[in-house]
Amino acid sequence: MQEDTRKDFLPLTSETWWLMTWITRTFGVLLLLVAFLLALGLPVVMSDKPVIFIVVAILYYPALAFGLYRFFLYQRRIRKRVVRKIQVDDQGIHYERADGTIDQILYHDLEKYNLSDVYDVSTSPRNKMYILNVKYNGSAADVDFDGTDAGYSYYIGNLKALRRRYIQGIVHFRPDLRIDPLVYDVYYINPSDFTFDKKKYWTEFVQTFALMMIGCIVLGIFVLGLVKWIF
To answer: Beta-carbon neighbour count of residue 169 at 10 Å?
Structure first.
């Protein structure tokens, strides 16, 4: 039975969203350029006399050059570890990195917590996002579907589909693991067929947008009244 499931469980590979990739790259380069120009001109702004500028420049620019050198080394190091491709198949999830290494979280290595009040597969908030949590090789692990590799290389466009496929794989190949129902809610997954629940997503989006608009209107009225009261 499981062999038939494996045959039907086709691999899903990450796809690059080139529009967002180039937007991310462009804004990243512009942001770095602005930061560099600001750092370069800081002594000029702080020094109102040539003598003071010379003293500050002698101390500041070598330190700036050293900082830029360290930043370059750090970027070169992390570029080797960025994720270039993600693939989900009947074995698990595989991360292909820029240096040629492959990290993976396989279904058969997932473990149970053996606690009645702890789910084996859950989520936790991080940076206004929800991260999928599992127990892998004896310790808690995050299954990363962030989709960006340090903001300057490739932006993955089918992250939601990759996440759904991995959760579907857990259900099919590890039915002994308990999945927190919140996983389906926060990722807008229909547990019956693992499709994206568009209706629920857009309903919550419209509700959130409406609340934000009401909040902005109330805040605008308050500020306008405050300005009239002051002046």
So the answer is: 23
DSSP calls for 191-220: TTT--B-HHHHHHHHHHHHHHHHHHHHHHH
Could you give phi then psi for residue 17, rounded to 5 degrees?
Answer: -95, 95
Average pLDDT value for the chain: 84
Q: For the chain, where are the alpha helices, taking DSSP H only?
A: 2-8, 18-46, 50-79, 159-173, 181-186, 198-230
Residue 134 CA to residue 113 CA, distance in Å, equals 9
Q: Which pairing describes strands 102-106 and 92-97: parallel, antiparallel, or unpaired?
A: antiparallel
pLDDT tens figures, 79-128? 777 788 899 999 999 988 888 888 899 999 999 987 777 899 999 888 77
Yes or no: say if 12 and 161 are a contact pair by the CB < 8 Å rule: yes
